[in-house]
């Protein structure tokens, strides 16, 4: 059984017009939400074997704030995750080695949200309320917690995952 955690980066600032989109930093709220979400996931026993994180400043800062609580395995920052569509993110996940049992992906919207909505098996997911909330809004620092009964990441496909939880900073 594989586990996948799709996390949208935390709240980022837009105050400095001299910064590119890639360079946008987290706000104070974003840092606090990241630390709290890291602790919350750790409390649920989440220990991702692999972290795939967009290399943008705000995604890296989100991961940096969460990392001490999660004590994850390897972290990688593939350039292709910055601005990736849901299909491009799925393609990256397909290349995950079969021996990796859990992945935390820290990405951007709309790709992260769209992938979560494509992966969820609405008929079989235990968290029906979470699925409804996820369909309404995938806010910053929200995480979709999935599991799927497959041995190979390359078999990940639309409606192949069970949504165990949809966690947001406010709920």
Task: Describe the protein in words.
The protein is an alpha/beta fold. The chain has a single domain (2-167), classed as 3-Layer(aba) Sandwich (Rossmann fold). It has 5 helices and 6 strands. The protein has helices at residues 28-43, 57-70, 86-94, 111-119, 128-136, and strands at 2-8, 50-53, 74-76, 102-107, 143-148, 162-167. Strands 3-2-4-1-5-6 form a 6-stranded mixed beta sheet. Strand 2, helix 2 and strand 3 form a beta-alpha-beta unit. Helix 1 (28-43) packs parallel to helix 2 and helix 3 (86-94) crosses helix 4 (111-119). The protein is globular. The model has no long low-confidence stretch (mean pLDDT 95).
CATH architecture: 3-Layer(aba) Sandwich
Summed up, the domain count is 1
CATH superfamily grouping:
Phosphoglycerate mutase-like
Mean of residue pLDDT values: 95
What's the main sheet like? Answer: 6 strands, mixed
Q: What is the terminal-to-terminal distance?
A: 27 Å
Strand content bin: 15-25%
**Envelope shape:** globular
In brief, what are we looking at here?
This protein is of the alpha/beta class and 171 residues long. Helices cover 33% and strands 19% of the residues.
Structural features:
5 helices, 33% helix, six-stranded mixed β-sheet
Write the layout of secondary structure elements.
Layout: E1 2-8, H1 28-43, E2 50-53, H2 57-70, E3 74-76, H3 86-94, E4 102-107, H4 111-119, H5 128-136, E5 143-148, E6 162-167
Parallel strand pairs: 1-4, 2-3, 2-4
Antiparallel strand pairs: 1-5, 5-6
Helix pairs in contact: 1-2, 3-4
């Amino acid at each position: 059984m594989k586990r996948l955690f799709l996390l949208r980066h935390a709240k980022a600032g837009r105050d400095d017009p001299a910064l590119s989109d890639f360079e946008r930093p987290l706000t104070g709220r974003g840092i606090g939400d990241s630390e709290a979400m890291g602790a919350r996931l750790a409390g649920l026993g989440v220990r991702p074997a692999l972290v795939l994180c967009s290399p943008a400043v705000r995604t890296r800062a989100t991961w940096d704030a969460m990392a001490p609580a999660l004590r994850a395995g390897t972290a990688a920052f593939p350039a292709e995750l910055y601005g990736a569509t849901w299909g491009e993110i799925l393609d990256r996940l397909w290349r995950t080695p079969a021996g990796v049992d859990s992945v935390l992906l820290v990405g951007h919207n709309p790709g992260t949200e769209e992938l979560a909505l494509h992966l969820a098996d609405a008929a079989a997911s235990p968290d029906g309320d979470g699925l409804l909330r996820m369909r309404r809004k995938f806010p910053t620092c929200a995480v979709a917690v999935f599991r799927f009964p497959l041995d190979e990441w390359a078999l990940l496909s639309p409606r192949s995952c069970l949504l165990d939880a949809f966690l947001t900073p406010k709920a």
